[in-house]
UniProtKB/TrEMBL annotation:
Record gene name: uppP
Top EC class, one word: hydrolase
Parts of the chain that traverse the membrane: 7-30, 50-71, 92-114, 120-142, 163-180, 200-221, 233-256, 262-279
Domain of life according to the entry: Bacteria
Subcellular localization(s) per the UniProt record: Cell membrane
Native organism: [Bacteroides] pectinophilus ATCC 43243
Predominant cellular place of this UniProt entry's protein: membrane
The protein's name in its UniProt record: Undecaprenyl-diphosphatase
Length: 281
């Protein structure tokens, strides 16, 4: 029962921090030091902290289904009996091509095996704390710089392939340094190149779908499929908790950024990073 409670806690933390630009991986690393699982196989945690994100990603699929499912017909969205390709929604299909382009840097990063190198080097208290602080400062600086500027890109359709690739490059920062936040890195990058807050957040949500599915599949393959019954239960419960919490957090964030900037998350990151540095063993 204690282990199940831990899985629920991790799921709640994942559901909150995956979408708010405060680093889900960083928070999970910190919480793992307090609520570490007992009696699980070697390497389970490394797999769990990535695959649990599938629950959060499923929330995006559910909430934004009409914005990401590309097949249409006269009666609404769905497959037709014949001529499937002729019923593709052009705008949504183009959006997916741009998302694929944004994923190219991450794919190259993984193919070269740099993800394992960075995990070995930077997944620790000190690096997480520094990343929290540095990107917290970045949020405040970028928002101040962006305050009186007019966004150049105010809809998903206005994102070009070049812009998509640039956002994908910013995403790599989070892949290298835990505590940076994947959503935080892509949002900061998007703001810097003139994307509005709302569009930056939405594009970040959609970009997470292939990135997190790919990362989770890779982690499961590396871990193997020899889950114990308890490990399988912990993973499913964690994903379920992340899914439920994400439904509320995504809605909150989309409403919040229509009236507020991201500076509050920057200050949170700085304070949390400072606490971690003071309390780290």
């Amino acid at each position: 029962m204690i282990e199940i409670i831990k899985a629920i806690i991790f799921g709640i933390v994942e559901g909150i921090t995956e979408w708010l630009p405060i680093s889900s991986t960083g928070h999970l690393i910190l919480f793992e030091k307090i609520f570490a699982f007992k009696n699980v196989s070697e390497g389970f945690w490394s797999m769990f902290e990535v695959v649990i994100q599938l629950g959060a990603i499923l929330a995006v699929v559910v909430l934004f289904w009409n914005s990401i499912f590309p097949f249409t017909n006269k009666n609404g969205r769905g497959f037709k009996e014949s001529g499937i390709l002729s019923h593709l929604d052009k705008e949504i299909t183009t959006l997916w091509f741009k998302i694929i382009v944004a994923c190219i840097p991450a794919v190259i990063f993984v193919v070269l095996g740099l993800d394992d190198v960075c995990e070995a080097m930077f997944y620790n208290y000190f690096c997480v704390a520094i990343a929290l602080i540095v990107f917290g400062v970045a949020f405040i600086v970028v928002e101040n710089w962006n305050k009186n500027r007019t966004s150049k890109i105010n809809s998903l359709g206005e994102i070009t392939y070049q812009t998509a690739l640039m956002i994908g490059l910013f995403q790599l920062i989070a892949a290298v340094f835990p505590g940076t936040s994947r959503s935080g890195a892509t949002i900061v990058g998007a703001l810097l190149i003139g994307v509005s807050r709302t569009v930056a957040a939405e594009y970040t949500f959609f970009l997470a779908i292939p990135v997190m599915f790919g990362a989770s599949l890779l982690k499961i393959v590396k871990f193997g499929f020899n889950f114990t019954a308890m490990e399988a239960a912990l993973l499913i419960i964690g994903m379920a908790a992340a899914f439920v919490v994400s439904l509320f957090v995504i809605r909150f964030l989309m409403g919040y950024i229509k009236k507020h900037d991201f500076k509050v998350f920057g200050w949170y990151r700085i304070i949390l990073g400072a606490i971690v540095l003071l309390l780290r063993p």
